[in-house]
Amino acid sequence: MKIKHIFFDLDHTLWDFEANSDIAFETIFKKHRVGVDLQKFLNYYRGINQNYWRLYRNEKITKEELRVGRLKDTFVKINYKVDNELIDCLSVDYIEVLPNNNKLFEGAYEILEHLYPNYKLHIITNGFNEVQYKKLENSGLSKYFDNIITSEDAGVKKPNPIIFEYALDKAKATSKESIMIGDNWEADIMGAIENGIDAIYFNYEKQPVGANIKSVYQLIEIKEYL
After folding, report:
1. One matching Pfam family, short form (predicted)?
2. Do residues 116 and 199 share a domain?
3. Are residues 124 and 199 in the same domain?
């Protein structure tokens, strides 16, 4: 069946999370006079944050535990003492500042311009509602997408089958006429495939994958498939 609906992940797929996150931390650390080596903090934070998101995705921790715990653990790792009040302030300000910076992956606008006239485009994201909508609006991406499906609205996170069923229902699409594009192997690619939805792996870190998996290193290469 011909593909009619394309579901994109947002963070790490279209929206360059790491680049924008780095700018957000630089901004809030200056505001609160946090005297750490920013690069040292970021080097530890990235891995810690990924682990917290994995726990959050698998329903092991709450949203609040993610927002606070990733900061606490990073400061402990670099042996920088901060009190709980400052942690709370940083966690709130980070979420506030993050969507103000909107660096996208190379080719994001170009591939969306290519796809938009011929397909219905949608977003499926595990990110927080209050941030994801701002990212889409501030970056100029909103106009391309018919539906924004968030894990908070669906009540579950990718790769849970329910969020894919919810997304298909909201888009009035079938699995056979849909395809998922994302960077996360477990949440996006396996999540989609196990629910009968084809997938394209945005493999910008160039991980080894099987020959049967559609994989691109750059967004513009999606043209080879769609």
Report:
1. Hydrolase
2. yes
3. yes
CA distance 157 to 165: 12
**CATH classification at residue 23:** 1.10.150.240
Cα–Cα distance between 125 and 17 in angstroms, integer?
A: 13
The predicted-structure confidence for 4-21, as pLDDT tens digits, reads as follows 999 999 999 999 999 999
Domain boundary among 100, 122, 153: 100
Cis peptide before 159 (omega within 30 of 0): yes
User: CA-based angle 5:57:154, to the nearest 5?
Assistant: 50
Q: CA-to-CA distance for 128 and 113, rounded, in angstroms?
A: 26
Are residues 81 and 41 part of one domain?
yes
Q: Is residue 92 domain-shared with residue 193, that is, in the same domain?
A: no
| Strand pairing report for 120-125 and 178-182 | unpaired
pLDDT at residue 85 greater than cutoff 80:
yes
CA distance 74 to 41: 7
pTM above 0.90, yes or no: yes
Residues 118, 189 share a domain: yes
